[in-house]
Amino acid sequence: MNGIYYYLIAFAIIWILSAILHDRLEKYGVEINFPVIMWKTKRLRGLISRISNFSPTFWRWYMNVGIVVAFGAMIFITWTLISSIPSVFDIPAVSIVIPGVEMPGSSIYIPFFYGLIALATVLIVHEFSHGIQAVNEKISIKSIGLLLFAIIPGAFVEPDEDELKEAKKSSRLRVYAAGSIANITLAIIAILLVSLISAGIPNYFAEDGIAIDRIVSDSPSDGILKEGMVLEAIDNHQIANSSDYTNVVSSFSPGDNVSVKTDKGTYTLTLDKNPSNESRGFFGIQANKHFELINDSLGPLPWILFELLELFQWVFMLNLGIGLFNLLPLKPLDGGYMLEILLSYKLSEKVYKPIVNALSVVMAVIIVFSIVVGFL
User: Fold this and answer.
1) In the chain, what are the domains?
2) Tell me: the pLDDT tens digits for 201-232?
3) 0.90 exceeded by the pTM?
């Protein structure tokens, strides 16, 4: 069963239990207003205040730089989205990604376990950073919590809206920029850890082929090849490393009958069209390097390096991707509010409000269109 059904069942159970236990849940700070369930608490406000008060000067200058980075990132992600329009039917620029679920139109599959941890880092770092900067700008935090919008989970830090509106423009810019800048910072840290781990792997392991990590559902390999098999040859082309694999699989066309030799036997596949390039054959295999342990001085312990490597790769990808997406000039995303504040320095509200609203509509149409094309 596709992983999406497990999510739908879980969320259906949550909604049913919430409806049944509505009165009891309210005592614990749970608010249910369909299609939103919110759980609010004041317990973590002290922690956020302590972090903010640890070095107010650092947080202020960190976000002063962050504002500049945020607007640069806004230009980059906006241009990337707009320039993707001509190729949207080949490779949609935007798609929904859910851990453990193969989403139509998305070439990215996020493993369930690693994906949940990485998404947790996105939410925690993003929302806590908003809160830390709000406290640093003398804006009160009313509550912190989790939410479920229909079937979309999230988290939030709720600042005092009146105080936020009355704050200086520079203060509001720092508060709005804080979440995405923290995500981008964590992405940088994660990719540095990936580089460090990758540099240490050759001390303990040697590459000895290509292993199948995942089989795409309803693909030519589905039901024939299995996860964990080690590829040895494809149509008599030997597969010794990742370069061999990449060169060989890109040489086939849709409809080709291909012989795949693995450590578990030899199998024949009829290739389909590649979703990213219909002129190329599609195996439906997600493969990665296969290693053997050559230095057992630490026993089996070095194998954990591969688990950490994959985890930090997803922490990098999700924090960077979601952090940049949140900087799009689209309300109610942070980027939309930041652009509105920036324009307000030179333009009246009657002028900048329609500009941001129109741009928000354009961005939303491109995003929805890209997602719909992916599904179709």
Assistant:
1) 41-145+156-198+313-375 (no CATH), 206-294 (2.30.42.10)
2) 989 988 877 888 888 877 888 888 888 888 88
3) no
